[in-house]
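pinning this so it doesn't scroll away 📌
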Amino acid sequence: MTAALKALEQAKAAAIRIPAELYHQRPELSNSQNNILIDETPAHFQEYKKNPPKQTKAMMEGQIIHSAILEPEPFLDTHVAVPECDRRTKAGKDFYEKFCIEHADKVKMDNDLYHRVFGMIGSVMAHRKARETLVKNHNELSFFGQLDGVAVRCRPDILRAGNLIADLKTTESAKEGSFQYDFTKYKYYRQCAFYLDLVTQVTGQKHDMFSIIAVEKHPPYAVQVFGVDDATIEKGREEYRRGLEIYRQCLESDKWPAYSDEVVPLNLCSWAW
């Protein structure tokens, strides 16, 4: 066994394999929760914890797509597309009921969504670097530990042999400039640093490389793989640590403030002058 593979097995042993729904119920601070502390306020964070947003159809579809691309074989074995039929008619209802009986052991999916997922899987597997990143890896392992004295958690999409963590992102455009905008807007760079640092802390194995597989949501489901540079990861580290400090202060004081209670000056945006 090579040193890289040995390190991967050690990382796997340090992780916990639990279903996603149980992972999300854990009390440790996640990267996305930490973002609320940084970009909004502790009061918004508390509201999110008390009343998490309800899962939408788009969110559920996103989870299906995510899982299918990461583990295509189990997906194809356990899911089936429901053929087009008009269930408002007796013939359509009879056809649908017969179909459900014949495929009782499988998850029924909207025909359009199933074929979109199938197309995305095909595009990812046809992309050399994306395929190399996905094969012979460990997917969606959960890590629990501490960063700066705060109990935290993460669930990397892909853990590769060596020192690489990778994440799968679906996007409207995987073109460099477009995805760079999304990467910055949605603070993915914080996630990179947060995940690398926590996996390193839990496993004792240095992880300092992060890749993102970006796959477009619409035909031709184009794919591009990005490597995040060191300066960007360090920027993410600086910012996520700011959130941890806010969280620690709130825990110590048991105060979760919103905005300032003083009068705040207001003027025009710079572009209006």
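📌 and the second one:
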Amino acid sequence: MDVRYTVGKNEYKRMTTDELREAFLVDLFEAGKLTLLYCEVERAITGAAVPTGCALKLEAGKELAADFFCQRREVGVLNIGGTGTVTVDGAEYAMENLDGLYIGRGSKDISFTSTDAANPARFYLISYPAHTEYPTTLAKKADANALELGTVEDSNKRTIYQYIHENGIKSCQLVMGFTALEQGSVWNTMPCHTHERRTEVYMYFNLDENSRVFHMMGPGDETRHLVVGNEQAVISPMWSIHSGCGTQAYTFCWGMGGENQRFDDMDHIQVGDLK
């Protein structure tokens, strides 16, 4: 498990492009492996599992000083690849493309497999500390709370699929879902916002090899951008906006943790106030 120490907004102002990418951009997906990144911001862990042979097991590692990964944690999973199975303490959860799964605190044995190694599942993981136990629950796309937002005229027509949230699958602090932009739309989360009470991780996917998302970040009065490719994630501290404009339509998974689970708890910034 890699460990990432993020930076404050004062240090951020003096960083080069390479330094920003090193601090906030995350590569996770690797065939046949389970990779994890531990971030000091809200003690979030983000990761990916791409099983192409034997099952990949989710283990705590010395960084957590725990007997097993979910001893004091909860996990959200989104499958962005082929069909696969997540096994939690002997219970098997078959997951098709864009299915989600909440894994509750206290779950001991967690593993990931693919139905077809030639078209493997690609499991994205986001985890936060948990203070109590909620049941492990499978989320199908058809059962998600779907919110249609934006317009073609504003190039931001999109559907937000909420899986783990205060009115959906129960969790301690984790909030997770994904947003899919329609063809011809390229903007997400603009007008933008911050939320001082939570941090967030975006993971962009469904991008062509030569397409990119220009992810806007930083305080509203001193913005920067990261050029993000397919299946890369961006860590957004509480002081940073998080918005993107792509060279094509795309999808992204969002995961949050912090003081509350209110999806609408945002400090909005008007476009005209950005610098």
